[in-house]
Design goal:
This protein has a five-stranded mixed sheet with strand order 1-5-2-8-9, with no helix packed on it. It has a four-stranded antiparallel sheet with strand order 4-3-6-7, with no helix packed on it. The protein is built from one helix and nine strands. The protein has one domain (2-126). It has one helix spanning 2-13, and strands at 21-24, 34-38, 42-47, 50-54, 64-68, 71-79, 90-96, 101-109, 112-119. Strand 8 and strand 9 form a beta hairpin. Helices cover 9% and strands 41% of the residues.
Length: 141
């Protein structure tokens, strides 16, 4: 029974969900956008002063792909991995390019956590929810 529960947890963390949830953070239909995926344990609260609640690691694991216009954007983020969670939100300001794919990934230490953005446009193996969980591909940071 424990093995079944552990297998179910590992599959959900590995991103074995149905189609990703696509969220466009802009109005209209621009020519090209940047796409960002928050990895497991990152919770998005705001993008550019607009409130969101995007939690890929909620009870029903979901992959999110966020469409953003090229340029600067500011995220307000939380971190929660089931055993540890952030006590304060972190702000991340990024500059994204049209046609690029990025992941938001945490760097966790005893003193807290820091989010950072990684361009994975040329590294398709890193375009996964489980990057940063220890279950996903290595060398994606």
């Amino acid at each position: 029974m424990r093995l079944l529960a552990l297998s179910t947890l590992l599959l959900s963390l590995a991103g074995c969900s149905s189609q990703p949830v696509i969220i466009n953070t802009f109005e209209g239909t621009p020519q090209e956008v940047a796409t960002i995926k928050p990895v497991a344990f990152i919770i998005i609260r705001k993008i550019d002063d607009r409130n969101y609640y995007i939690n890929p690691s909620s009870l029903l694991t979901k992959e999110y792909e966020l469409g953003l216009l090229p340029g600067k954007h500011t995220f307000l983020l939380d971190y929660a991995d089931g055993t540890a969670s952030s006590t304060k939100q972190s702000e991340l300001t990024v500059d994204v390019a049209a046609g690029h794919r990025y992941i938001i990934r945490p760097s966790v230490s005893k003193s807290g956590w820091t989010p950072f953005l990684i361009d994975v446009t040329t590294r398709p193996e890193c375009w996964t929810l489980s990057v940063g969980t220890g279950l996903g591909p290595k060398n994606c940071g």
